[in-house]
Write a structure and sequence with these properties.
alpha+beta; Beta-Lactamase; 5-stranded antiparallel sheet; rod-shaped
């Protein structure tokens, strides 16, 4: 036996230390699980909040690529889910023309949101005009443009309007 040269006291001390390490690992795993559960709950709450909003919400990178959308925006444009909208938007784009996209996403950096009307490409192939508000804001990793799309016939709240130059 390779531990024959060690005293009984040394072996008991080592076993006690190992048991302590196991207990510490179990506590760390439990704490990590609690944090993961809390993050999952927060993510679900934010997703429910975004999906239940009465306006379409989209998040764009500075190249104009749609990176996130809520269920309302997908429904307004005829899609079954935000994932369907993201897949098609990556190929065909969300707006009727590149010029429409440039105008809609021309958010004023730091001066408040820019309000205008944009022409969108629907899933059916038709085009539909919607009032939009765009705001560019710095994210932790990169700048993003947030876009609120209002149902046709409802102007954006005047509280958010800024004069267009």
């Amino acid at each position: 036996m390779h531990d024959a040269h060690r005293t009984r006291h040394e072996l008991i001390h080592e076993i006690t230390g190992l048991r302590k390490q196991i207990t510490d690992l179990k506590e760390a795993m439990t704490a990590r699980r609690r944090v993961e559960d809390a993050l999952r709950d927060t993510e679900n709450t934010l997703r429910r909040l975004a999906d239940s909003a009465p306006v379409g919400l989209g998040l764009f990178d500075l190249t104009g690529r749609l990176v996130a959308a809520n269920r309302t925006l997908a429904g307004m444009l005829g899609y079954d889910s935000p994932a369907d909208l993201l897949a098609i938007a990556a190929v065909l784009g969300l707006f009727a023309t590149p010029d429409e996209q440039s105008l809609a996403l021309a958010a004023q950096n730091g001066a408040g949101p820019a309000s205008r009307t944009a022409l969108f490409r629907l899933k059916s192939g038709c085009r539909e005009s919607h009032p939009v508000l765009a705001r560019r804001s710095p994210d932790v990793d990169h700048d993003v443009i947030s876009l609120a799309v209002f149902p046709t016939g409802t102007p954006p709240p005047s509280l958010f309007r800024t004069p267009l130059a």
